[in-house]
């Protein structure tokens, strides 16, 4: 330390430039690591025919993915009994997001379009038993989950209650994960959340919004097993994807509130997990129980 101080007082400009270069190089390395294999290409590798290839990020610590959209899509594939294979390549879709699918050489971006694509290819409709009015309600709740609760999750997990322990568990192989998340990912997400709007609210206000959303969802679910009745519909996949994150992979006030105030939603998560994810524990990197539920 003393040597650095001496060098600095003898050559301040040179030391500042050298320090800047070290920080910039570290930044570039972390950035490249985070952005590696960025976008999807249509050139298919040697994937089995007639099998959906689900491209996603790696498994999550306490639920099968850190992205609710991957859990949505994989749950759908399981409910619809579609042959699929996971590829945890961390490649982004042509739209720059995770997850996405490829099927016989054709790539589809966005979980909703992936489901529509498979529905058409395989003649599937998990919501066929719903009336038009019920479909409207189911879709509205899906939007509530994906367009509002999702942003609650984003703000609370990555900005307002950044949990470095969860980060370390979420990216166990990334040497610079804490640095990258704290100084790059979190500020980038803060900007996105601000632009979307949720990021302009205080944490207390975000929790308040979450409570209203979850109350509506819980009241509507009532004593039903799934969103619309005794069997799951397509929209349950999206709702489970989002709720799974609040329940298993979030710490802080929203997650505590979820567990304390919404027992019906907790049971719903457990029910979806038990029914469609018998291998849940094997699909997680830390054994599938949230530290917050211990
Ligand atoms: N509407 C998309 C949303 C997917 C999405 O937002 N994925 C996030 C992860 S949770 C993502 O890829 N974020 C990376 C980014 O925006 O650069 C879908 O349903 O697939």
From TrEMBL:
InterPro entries: FAX/IsoI-like, Glutathione-S-Trfase_C_sf, Glutathione_S-Trfase, Metaxin_GST, Mito_Protein_Transport_Metaxin, Thioredoxin-like_fold, Thioredoxin-like_sf. It comes from the Eukaryota. Residues 68-160 form the Thioredoxin-like fold domain. It holds the Pfam family GST_N_4. The keyword Membrane applies. Keywords: Membrane, Transmembrane, Transmembrane helix. SUPFAM superfamilies: GST C-terminal domain-like, Thioredoxin-like. GO terms for cellular component: cytoplasm. CDD domains: GST_C_Metaxin. The chain crosses the membrane at residues 12-31. The keyword Plastid does not apply. Residues 210-272 form the Metaxin glutathione S-transferase domain. Belongs to the FAX family. This is Failed axon connections-like. The lineage of its organism: Eukaryota, Metazoa, Spiralia, Lophotrochozoa, Mollusca.
């Amino acid at each position: 330390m003393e040597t650095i101080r001496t060098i600095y007082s003898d050559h301040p400009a040179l030391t500042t430039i050298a320090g800047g270069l070290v920080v910039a190089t570290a930044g570039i390395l972390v950035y490249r690591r985070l952005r590696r294999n960025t976008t999807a290409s249509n050139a298919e590798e040697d994937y089995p025919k007639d099998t959906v290839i689900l491209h996603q990020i790696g498994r999550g610590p306490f639920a099968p993915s850190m992205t609710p959209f991957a859990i949505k899509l994989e749950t759908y594939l399981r409910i619809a009994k579609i042959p699929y294979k996971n590829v945890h390549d961390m490649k982004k879709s042509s739209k720059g997001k995770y997850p996405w699918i490829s099927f016989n050489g054709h790539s589809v971006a966005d979980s909703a379009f992936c489901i529509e694509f498979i529905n058409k290819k395989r003649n599937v409709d998990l919501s066929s038993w719903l009336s038009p009015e019920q479909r409207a309600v189911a879709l509205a709740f899906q939007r509530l989950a994906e367009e509002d609760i999702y942003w609650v999750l984003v703000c609370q997990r990555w900005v307002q209650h950044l949990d470095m322990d969860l980060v370390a568990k979420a990216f166990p192989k990334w040497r610079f994960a804490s640095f990258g998340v704290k100084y790059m990912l979190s500020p980038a997400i803060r900007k996105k959340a601000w632009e979307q709007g949720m990021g302009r609210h205080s944490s207390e206000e975000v929790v308040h919004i979450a409570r209203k959303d979850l109350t509506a969802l819980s009241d509507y679910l009532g004593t039903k097993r799934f969103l619309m009745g005794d069997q799951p519909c397509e929209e349950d996949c999206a709702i489970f994807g989002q709720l799974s994150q609040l329940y298993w992979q979030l710490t802080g006030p929203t997650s505590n509130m979820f567990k304390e105030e919404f027992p019906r939603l907790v049971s719903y998560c457990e029910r979806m997990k038990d029914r469609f994810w018998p291998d849940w524990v094997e699909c997680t990197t830390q054994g599938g129980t949230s530290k917050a539920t211990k």
